[in-house]
Design brief:
With 149 residues, the protein is mostly beta strands. Helix content is 13%, strand content 36%. It has a 4-stranded antiparallel sheet, with no helix packed on it. It has a 3-stranded antiparallel sheet with strand order 3-4-5, with no helix packed on it. A hairpin with a 2-residue loop joins β1 and β2.
Length: 149
């Protein structure tokens, strides 16, 4: 006897994915800036990775100047990036397309472990911010000696 399995959820799954896509576009449009800058909610795009006792943070910030950027480490595991990207077109010009956002932004990330705020190295070159953060002593693994009877 041959049995046929039908995926009864397939049409519903497609509708749910379309609904999620529509909601993402809606929230991008009505972000904190009142919808003037679509997709600005996750600016700047970042990469974070770890290598031994060091955490690396990299952010793309095209068009920013060093004076328009602030970095904070708070609570030993919170990294905050603040800045402002100024518009590149003259004020009285007519824009035909606006895909790159401008204005003030704040991006805060909870780091995966405590870092030492006194051992932070930050460099900003060619529109890319690179930050190295040393793992705090309290976050480093310690070997425990096991005693026996």
């Amino acid at each position: 006897m041959q049995t046929t399995t039908r995926n009864v959820f397939h049409p519903l799954w497609g509708q749910l994915q379309q609904f999620q896509s529509d909601m993402n576009r809606l929230f991008d449009r009505w972000s904190d800036d009142g919808g003037r800058q679509p997709g600005w909610t996750n600016f700047p795009p970042v990469n974070v990775w770890e290598d031994g006792d060091t955490l690396y943070f990299e952010a793309e910030l095209p068009g920013l100047k060093l004076n328009d950027l602030e970095i904070y480490v708070t609570g030993n595991n919170q990294l905050t990036l603040k800045g402002e990207r100024k518009p590149t077109t003259p004020e009285k010009s007519v824009r035909h397309r606006q895909e790159r956002g401008f204005g003030k932004f704040v991006r805060s990330l909870t780091l995966p472990f405590a870092v030492d705020p006194n051992k932070v190295d930050a460099r900003f070159e060619n529109g890319v911010l690179q930050v190295k953060l040393a793992k705090h002593e309290s976050a480093k693994a310690r070997k425990i000696t096991v005693k026996g009877d």
